[in-house]
Amino acid sequence: MSVETLIGADPDVLIVPDWKTYDGSDANTLKEALYANPKLSSMKAIKNKQIYAVDYNYMFGYGYNTIDGMEQLAKEMYPDLFK
């Protein structure tokens, strides 16, 4: 997805995969880069600090782990509901 398309969509929330890359980057590195990118600063998800990382294998593994991934994401997005 291009930066322009992402800006045009202006999502309320961004969900990024949580995995390490060949250079050691992880979801936190990606989140920091997205928050620091001035081109994205007008987006709702950036302004409201609504970027969430979820384990890629849980969310896209197409098995029982997908339910665990959804629960992990819900706990991160709505921590008050899981106290």
UniProtKB/TrEMBL annotation:
Residue ranges annotated for the Fe/B12 periplasmic-binding domain, each copy included: 1-81
InterPro entries the UniProt entry points to: ABC_Transporter_SBP (IPR050902), ABC_transptr_periplasmic_BD (IPR002491)
SUPFAM superfamilies (UniProt xref): Helical backbone' metal receptor (SSF53807)
Family: Belongs to the bacterial solute-binding protein 8 family.
Protein name, per record: ABC transporter substrate-binding protein
Native species: Paenibacillus mellifer
